[in-house]
Amino acid sequence: MVATGFTTAAYPTLGGSGDGDGDGTSDLRAVTPDRHLVTFSGWSAAKDLGALR
Questions:
Q1: Neighbours of 15 (CB within 10 A)
Q2: Which range of residues forms the domain containing residue 36?
Q3: Which residues pair with 39 in a beta bridge?
Q4: pTM for the whole thing?
């Protein structure tokens, strides 16, 4: 299954580096247009880690 909603308008920066949190599933990280860093762990909802400086 391929996730949807990952447009360049929603996430100008999107990347992954494998299993970042050690739970056995690949993770994604993204930066929103308002410069918030968010992570996606497996199929769970995004976790907003706050604004970048």
A1: 10
A2: 13-51
A3: 29, 47
A4: 0.76
